[in-house]
Amino acid sequence: MPKAFSTQHGWYLSTLSSALENAQVLTSNDNNNLEIASSKLIYTYTYAMSGFSANLSPKELEALKSSTGYISSIPDLPAKLDTTHSPQFLDLNPNTGAWPIGKFGEDIIVGLVDTGIWPESESFKDEGMTKIPSRWKGQCEDSIKCNNKLIGARFFHKGVLAKYPYLARNENSTRDTQGHGTHTSSTVAGSQVDNASFFGYANGSARGIAPRARVAMYKALWEDRTMSSDIIAAIDSAISDGVDVLSLSLGLDDVPLYNDPIAITTFSAMERVRRLGG
After folding, report:
1. Is the CB of residue 207 less than 8 Å from the CB of residue 103?
2. Rounded distance, CA 116 to CA 179, Å?
3. How sure is the predictor about 85, in pLDDT bands with cuts at 50, 70 and 90?
4. What is the DSSP pairing of strand 250-251 with strand 214-219?
5. Cys bridge to 143: 79, 129, 173, 203, which one at CB 3.0-4.6 A?
6. pLDDT digits (tens, 9 = 90+) for 216-256
7. Contact 135/242 with Cβ under 8 angstroms?
8. Structure confidence at residue 168 (pLDDT)
9. Residue 100 to residue 114: CA distance in whole angstroms
10. H/E/C letters for each residue in the chain?
């Protein structure tokens, strides 16, 4: 970043401003130029990667490539949902080995990037859990009631709205309307729920792989429309909030790692959080 800028956001905004199709016309009015650039800027990333996402025309993108500091650009690719595995698959034993030695994830903060969460599920009850660790910097948006188990809930959909501006997106909430995020987060860190069943079938106790861990949900997957820019923003926020583990049950198909924005972002996350899973 050039010394003339005090923040990366200011640098990115100035860089983007210079790449506008009508930049030459607006050079006499820098404020107007920056205002237009700001409307095209979707996210500024600080922790997950050094860069930003923006809604650009092909001509503006070509102009951006000649800017000082430019390294590379990747299209905002759609992602798809995946699934996760069970304690049996991981050969975990509740009596010996890594599971009890790790105290079943006690006080570990797991950040999940998914379709959201259903906070009323018994898997997220906080009975017997201690207070939230002081290192936690995250927050819970208004429509979700958090506790000492579910300690964070945020949503990201600016990338989806930029790609599909005709959508009337009224779901300004981290609440899960698909079930995938509630499924994966309870599989990873759900509290023990006794007398669980599927409408009377398969009775037993249900619990996550790390039932003593905390959960922070970052909703970035919206029905059948999911953009990488929102996923990166969610990971960026999770790193800033102070998660210990990232769990992502999603991905891109047929994209080499060096062009996969999720792979690049999670590689960066490994350098900033203590563990990376998913």
Report:
1. no
2. 8
3. low
4. unpaired
5. 173
6. 999 999 987 899 999 999 999 999 999 999 999 998 888 99
7. yes
8. 62
9. 28
10. CCCCCCCHHHHHHHHHHHCCCCCCCCCCCHHHHHHHHHHHEEEEECCCCCEEEECCCHHHHHHHCCCCCCCCCCCCCECEECCCCCCCCCCCCCCCCHHHHCHHHCCCEEEEEECCECCCCHHHCCCCCCCCCCCCCCCECCCCCCCCCEEEEEECCHHHHHHCCCCCCCCCCCECCCCHHHHHHHHHHCCCEEEEEECCEEEEEECCCCCCCEEEEEECCECCECEHHHHHHHHHHHHHHCCCEEEECEECCCCCHHHCHHHHHHHHHHCCCCCCCC
Task: Find tokens 């997957």 and name the residue.
Answer: 221
Contact at 8 Å (CB) between 122 and 109? no
What's the mean per-residue pLDDT of the chain? Answer: 88
pLDDT in tens, 181-226: 999 999 999 999 998 888 888 888 888 999 999 999 999 999 878 9
pTM to 2 decimal places: 0.88
